[in-house]
Structures are given as structure tokens and as C-alpha cells.
Amino acid sequence: MFTQTPDTSWYMIVGYIVFITLPTLFIVSMIWRHRNLMKDEEMIKNLLEDEKK
Amino acid sequence: MKSYLQAILAIARKDLAAEIRSRELVSAMLVFSLLVVLIFNFALDLDKSARENVAAGVLWVTFTFAGTLGLNRTFAAEKDRGSLDGLLLAPVDRTAIYFGKLISTLVFMLLVEAVVLPVFTVLYGISLFNISLFGVILLGTFGYGGVGTLLACMAAQTRTRDVMLPILLFPVTVPVMLGAVRASTGILANAEWGEILTWINILVVYDVIFVAVAVMVFDYLIEE
Amino acid sequence: MHSSTPKPLKILNIISILMFIVSLGLVFFYAPREAVMGEAQRIFYYHVPSAWLSFVAFGVTLIAGIAYLRTNDHRWDRLGIASVEVGIVFAVMALLSGMLWARPIWNTWWTWDPRLTTYTILLLIYFAYLMLRQGIEDPDKRARFGSVYGIVGFISVPITYFSIYLWRTIHPAVFGRNESETKMSMEPQMLQTFIFCNIFFMVLFVTLLWHRFRLESNTARVEELRMRASNA
Fold first, then answer.
1. Which residues contact B138 (CB under 8 A, 6 or more apart)?
2. How confident is the model at residue B224 (pLDDT cuts 50, 70, 90)?
3. CB of C40 within 8 A of CB of A12?
4. What is the pLDDT of residues B87-106, one digit of tens each?
5. Residue span of the structural domain in which C136 resides
6. Distance separating alpha carbons of residues C117 and A36, to the nearest angstrom
7. What is the dihedral of CA C206, C210, C213, C218, to 10 degrees?
8. A48 and C232 in contact (C-beta within 8 Å)?
9. Phi, psi of C34 (to 5 degrees)
10. Which long-range contacts link C187-192 to residues 24+ away (Cβ below 8 Å)?
11. In a 3-state reduction of DSSP, which class is residue C193?
12. Residues 6+ apart with CB under 8 A from B162
């Protein structure tokens, strides 16, 4: 008995958009947090330097 | 061993005595429970048979919410008054604090439940005076209180305090809810015992596992 | 000065990216179209590893929690929080993709079957974990409490699953259908794709976990610096 395979491509595409977006967002958030951290570290180091003078 | 038990009772007695004096907590829990029962009455417009189906569920939701109130107060008061430090100075195993708090919480919850049951019977027209039901309520309250006491100790020490406890507690006590409601429904509907016993087993297993875990882990929550 | 990315991690980065590209190729071009479900079935290749690895992640947090309580070494706590974050990312991916896969097949976005329900509760537990940590200032307390909740949370999951499973066996829900009812015809190319994607996700998991762990270590270091600066 022949049944037509339904066209479910839309679901696949959205699915893979999810698969790619979520880890990307996570990586971006890590990079962003890292940048902020390095900025803070610079600032604190400068503060400590100034205090020594 | 004797001093351990004495410590537990002393801690429980302290909380109970404080409550007898002020009667704040139990009255708050009581009023809140009755309000919840009332709200459910308006929220779920039920005919007689539907009411019988959901009675156990409504009952346990009521106990859960009221229990949260009780649990929050158990540790919050401690932190505010700094009396926890006094407890910590005592040369007794820290888990005595856990059991002491657990006992007082259980007493409060059971008291409230004892009042809610007859009220519920009247309002819902279903007889809740059943020994097996009492047993299930005891088991469920014990499991809920057991985990609740542990988590309340943590929640009390966070910034968000009262709000934190339900967030921590509810996802983890799903088996208690399910087991208690299913067993209660079975008992009220006079279902066959095999099924009810299965749920009671789940409650027992849960209670044992989590009180054991709580005892192993409680020390780490009160280091200063 | 923070240490630069260690060599093994740099290699892992490259392997991850390469495997990612290859996996996409396999999923979209090598694996044949499944007869019953159509294109949506391709979600399966990423969905399954995402789901089981999220479990692994939370298991890592369980072990890290126990290890921290016993050793008081903060590195375990950093591993714990890192693993929870990665676990949540994987879990959300698995949940959303699962819904998208289910919809064309069972014509519903959601069923309250035991696995799905327990999985949602699992996610809620770890959101609670994050909120708990955010509400605590003292790093020692944060680590201790996180460890405790990580342990309590993980242990509750099997019991929760079992009780919901029991419930649904005794009282099957009228709506929603059992996953095992749906058959999927598996051909060799599909199996190969599936295995490759699982390996890719394992590599991805370790890579992300390691990066997140390093971020946490750096954060702790800068915190310490901050303490020193405010005390000076």
C-alpha cells in the first residue's frame, strides 16, 4: 500500500535552527562574560597600581 | 545517644513553646488553608462526582501551600534572632537541629491538617475520617516536611528567602504529591488495595531516601 | 594575567567545528529520507544525543557536588555550575527539538507522558539551582548549597520518573500517545549518521564544559582580586 510521505521539512528546518542558535547563544554569552571579566580585571589592576603610587 | 535525643526534643520544644505563646504561625497556616479551599471552590465549578475525583488533589495542594508557610517560618525566625548560633554552640551532632526542626514543622502541619480535614468534609460533602487516609497524610506530610526542612534551611539563607523555598521544593517533591494524591483518591473511592499499596510504597521509599540524604547533608548547611 | 587557552582545548575547538560541519553533511545529504516521518525525522540525529548528554551533565554536577562537600576544593564547585549551564542548554535543545519532531507525527506539541514530564521537572530543578546560587553572596556558602541541591535534585529524578510512569500505566492519559508506538525504519546510513552525531555531541559537550569551567575559574580569580582591592 503506497502512502505519500508527508512534507515535514518546515519542522526539520526550525529544529536545526534551534540546534544551531542555542549553543551559539551560549558561546556568545561566554565570550561576552569573558570580555567583561577582562575589563574588570584591567580596572582593578589599575586601581591597585594607583594605590601603590 | 541520650543527649542527642534530648537535644532534638529541646529544639522542637523551643519552637513549639514559642508558637504556643504567639500562635501566629498556626493561625496563619490555618486561615491560609481555608482560603485556598475556598478559592478552589470558586475556581473549579464542580458537580458532586467531579468533586469526589478532585477532592484528594485539592486537599494536598492546600497542605502543600500551607506547609510552605510553616517551613519558611521555621528557619526564618532563627536567622533573624541569631539564635541559630546558640544552637551551634551546643556540643551535639548538628543533625539534631534537623530532626528538632522537622518535628516542630510536622507538628504544625499536622495540627493544621487536623483542622482542615473536618472543614473539608463539610464543604465538600465527602467523609474524610478514615484511618488509612490519616496514615497516608502522615506519610506524605513526613516526606514533604523532611525535604522541606532541608531546603528551607537553605532558602532562609538566600537573598530571596520566602520565594526561594517553593522554587526549590516543588519540583523535587513531585513523587510525594503524586503518591499522596493517588493513594488518597484510591482510599476515598474504595479502590482495591493493591493499587493503593503501590502508592504508599512510593511514599515510604521517598521518605526513607530523602530523610537519609538530608541527615547526611545537613551539616554542610549550617557551617558558619 | 589569565592563562591562555591550553593546547588540548584549542584542538578540541577545531575538532568540534570540523565534526559539526561533517555531521550536518551527513544529516542532510547522506542520511536517506525516512519513509513514515519525512524530513522532520532528521531532528532525531541531534535530538537524542542532546537529551542523554544533558543527563550526563547533571550527573557530573551530582558527582562534583559530592566531591566538593568532601574536599572543599572550589574547583569541584566550578565544574558543578559549568556542567549545569551546559546541561540546561542541551536540555532546552532536546525539549524544543522533541516538540518539533512530535508535532507532525502525533499532531500535538505536547504530551504529558512520563519521560517528557520528568524531563520538564528536571529542567525546573536546574533552573532552581541557578536561582539558588544567584541568591547567595558568600562563595563558600554558594558552593555548599549548590552541591547539596545538585545532589537532592538529581536523586529525585529517578523516583519522579518512576512514580509518573506508574501513574500513567495505571491510568493512561486519554490524550497523547506512547513514543514507543511510533516505528522508525532504520537503514545503515541512518545508523552511521546517528553514531557520528552522538560522538560529535560528546566532543561538543566536553569542549563547552571546559570553556565554561575556565570562565568560572577566571571569574573566581577576578573576584579574589576584587576582594584584595577593596581591602587595600
1. B110
2. low
3. yes
4. 667 777 888 889 999 999 99
5. 40-177+186-221
6. 38
7. -170
8. yes
9. -80, 140
10. C187/C32, C189/C30, C189/C31, C189/C32, C190/C31, C190/C32, C190/C34, C192/C26, C192/C30
11. helix
12. B72, B76, B155
Determine, yes or no, domain membership for C30.
Answer: no
Q: Answer yes or no: do C148 and B174 touch at CB < 8 A.
A: no
Task: Summarize pLDDT for C134-182 with one digit per residue, the tens.
Answer: 999 899 999 999 999 999 999 999 999 999 999 988 877 655 555 545 5
- Nearest-by-Cβ selection for B175 from C135, C145, C160: C160
CB C97 to CB A7 under 8 A?
no
Test B159 with C69 for CB contact under 8 angstroms: no
Residue C85 lies in a domain: yes
Structural domain count of chain C: 1
pTM: predicted TM-score of the whole model, two decimal places? 0.91
CB C98 within 8 A of CB A18: no
Residue C115 belongs to some domain of the structure? yes
- Any idea how long chain C is? 232
Instruction: Determine the residue of chain C that is closest to A46 in CA distance.
Output: C229
Non-local CB neighbours of B135 within 8 Å, separated by 6+ positions = B200
Whose CA is closest to B137, among B177, B169, B99, B100? B177
